[in-house]
Amino acid sequence: MKKIAFVFLCCLTGVTFGKAQSTNQYFLFIGTYATEAGPNGIHTYRLDIEAGTLRKVQSVTELGNASFLAVSDDQSNLYAVSGSKVNAYTLNSSTGQLSFLNSVPSSGSCYVSVAPGGKAVFVGNYGGGNTEAVRTNADGSFDEASVQLLQHQGSSVNKERQEAPHVHATVLSPDGRYLMVPDLGTDRVYQYELSTTSGEILKPGSKPWLSVPKGAGPRHLVFHPNGKYAYLILELHGAVMVLDYAEGMLKEKQIISMVDKGFKGRLSGADIHVSPDGKFLYASNRGDANEIAIYSIDQKGKLTRIGRQPVMGKTPRNFAIDPSGRFLLVANQDTNEVIVFRRDETTGVLTATGQSIAVDKPVCLKFAPIQQGPEEKLVAEAVERFRQVMTDPESDVLASLASDDLEYVHSSGTVRDKQGFIDEFMKRWTNFSKVDILNQTIKISGDNAIVRHRLVADSNNPGYPSKVDIIILMVWRKEGGQWKMLARQAAKIPE
């Protein structure tokens, strides 16, 4: 067979692996408004959770005004609202591929959420002023005969924005038993109970709604990870309401502004999220502020505003914290970009990374973990076995993992074949005490697999640096039903 040569770009003779690769890889789905200037629909990116960079995967452009998205908890389906309908897609959790299933009508939809187990979908219809619930079939498609509409009634004091009901969110309680529905038009948060019968999907809670101050305009709501508190952004007042939560009922305990006293600009609170560790809350202010308000959360759930972060654009309609808690991404609707900020997990402070992507009218950001396919798992297992044997070399194991065609080329130009490669590790010509593998990706193409990762190592090699931080490319080939290492290349991380 023809051998493949890879030349190392740094002065390493070999690397051992001290820590298994993290599986925390995520897709980012971006919902957009339609314009004539650029593609609309849903755009899929892959997030590098170490560097905070985004790589384009695909776009679904036939869907206009995909203003809000939701992913089922098993990552098998994605749902998108688009004005007059709600759309169901299958989601390939390995590739990010979306495939259309069906849709049901809606009346000016602006929010969508999914029940635990994906058994039902809930839609907030801003234009229609109602909450919509629909059951799903086994494949995640809508059971079109099961649609339930719960019409809200009333108005409030802002004659331009509160002339009628305007449902703005449908948020599941932490236990999945209740649905909280902020209605901007009526200054209420409706409280529904999920039915356990085969009839109606939702029924009013024992206390049908929570009233908020007149003219406040409740928009989005988020629960604290401990399930005891909830936070409601008041769009028209530019403030956040802190709520106690228990058994399907919310109770007000604090209201805190998003801006300094004396702020003269237009207020427009938009989105709200709690950090995964429950220590900080973030709220976006569109209007004239165009910033993220940052709050610390005390042991009783109350907030103290500790800072503001300009979003480096206009109209931060939506933002998202990645599941690792390292990054906060902002969708700047009117400057057509998604901006990446690094989040200090100790202080809560945000710092611009310099990373951004151009997206026409981004209005919703949703993460979903990337799942490995069967062959990807087998390759990952082979890489893990390689890690173990390199930290504690055994010649027979090294031989079983290496292809007979393996070429191992040093920066000096020295080429070792399979036996030379085994000898090198057994004789400890390379000696690393610890290696962490970060942000590994695996791409399968037929009987070949390309593995990329970042490698951070402590070296004990005489004459070599004590610290190594590089990127690695490995090629594995399936031979006789087993994945074998064919080639490996290291490179310095670009500055």
Describe the structure in your own words:
The chain has 495 residues and is mostly beta strands. It folds into two domains: 26-369, YVTN repeat-like/Quinoprotein amine dehydrogenase (Methylamine Dehydrogenase, Chain H); 374-492, Nuclear Transport Factor 2, Chain: A, CATH 3.10.450.50. Helix content is 7%, strand content 50%. It is built from three helices and 33 strands. The protein has helices at residues 374-391, 395-401, 418-426; strands at residues 26-32, 42-47, 54-60, 68-71, 77-81, 83-91, 98-114, 120-125, 130-135, 148-151, 171-172, 178-183, 188-194, 202-211, 218-223, 229-234, 239-246, 249-257, 269-274, 280-285, 291-297, 303-310, 316-321, 327-332, 337-343, 350-358, 362-369, 402-409, 415-416, 432-445, 448-459, 467-479, 482-492. The strands form seven sheets. It has a seven-stranded antiparallel β-sheet, with no helix packed on it.
